[in-house]
Amino acid sequence: MLVNPAAGQRAATGRGLQVAQHLRDAGARVTVTHTQSADHGCQVATEAAGRGNIVVAVGGDGTVGSLAGAVVATGATLGLVPVGRGNDFARQLGIPNDLAAVADLLLTGSVRSVDVIDVRGQIVVGSVYAGIDSLTSALVNRVHRLPTRLQYPVAAVWAIATHRATDYRIVIDGMAQSIDAHTVIVANSGYYGSGMHVAPSAQLDDGLLDIVIFSAAGRLRLLKALRRVYSGTHLQLPEVTVQTGRAVAIDAAGSVEAYADGDRIGPLPVGARVRPGALNVIAPSPRTG
């Protein structure tokens, strides 16, 4: 069990230890390690996976993403204890927040093989984005003293107030297009930004990425889209389009940063491709029908 002590406004340690105790009470062997950095977490995860252990990430989407690479590389299995700001990958998987329920899931849940995004060799479980959303991610760290539920909305409004549309060149499975847009999201998971249902049709096991594009629009229209993104009804707006593909390249006129699951990737251009079924994760069985 790898605990990011900085996750969830530093709630991760206590919640992780509670889950560990539930698991031990049920007869499981549990080793708890507090990660000192992303590199340290990956090293410990790789070593644990090499011994045949299940790697349990205690943290948010950033923690999950940083450990997923090691799990994918070794073919091991990942478990989640969602205690971060967003927990959007856990939300997509249907993982509960109740600690006893999480422990029970880790003990009895099924193992699903789900897709991931590969960006320059880095594994991303949720989404890659550029534009207003990358600016929002950068701003979230400046409003960390606000309650968690307010951090993303406040940062998003701030970003909308200052951002200008950019000319993007997007290549999806070899087909190029140019568009004046505010943001481009390449989604593996349907959720981001602490519960925003940005890509409602995204599935974790379909071998496809959903590319959501917010075309150039006035700030009032962007605020309207922001209000509707939690329910997924922003897709009804004419300036929002969705395409699917397996490999995506994004470039832009001017300097635009790309982010993935809240963490900076670097300046555009950036390429992303789906790796179908690459990650084994303990989760509830997917809903059918």
From TrEMBL:
One annotated GO molecular function is: ATP-dependent diacylglycerol kinase activity
User: A single GO BP annotation from the record?
Assistant: phospholipid biosynthetic process
DAGKc domain residues: 1-123
Q: What are the annotated GO cellular component locations?
A: plasma membrane
Pfam annotation, one family: DAGK_cat
Needed cofactors: Mg(2+)
Annotated InterPro entries: ATP-NAD_kinase_N, Diacylglycerol/lipid_kinase, Diacylglycerol_kinase_cat_dom, Lipid_Phosphate_FormReg, NAD/diacylglycerol_kinase_sf, YegS/DAGK_C
Q: What keywords would UniProt list here?
A: ATP-binding, Kinase, Lipid biosynthesis, Lipid metabolism, Magnesium, Metal-binding, Nucleotide-binding, Phospholipid biosynthesis, Phospholipid metabolism, Transferase
Report the family membership. Belongs to the diacylglycerol/lipid kinase family.
Query: Record's PANTHER family?
Result: LIPID KINASE YEGS, SPHINGOSINE KINASE
- The molecule here is called YegS/Rv2252/BmrU family lipid kinase
- UniProt organism field: Cryobacterium suzukii
Q: What is the lineage of its organism?
A: Bacteria, Bacillati, Actinomycetota, Actinomycetes, Micrococcales
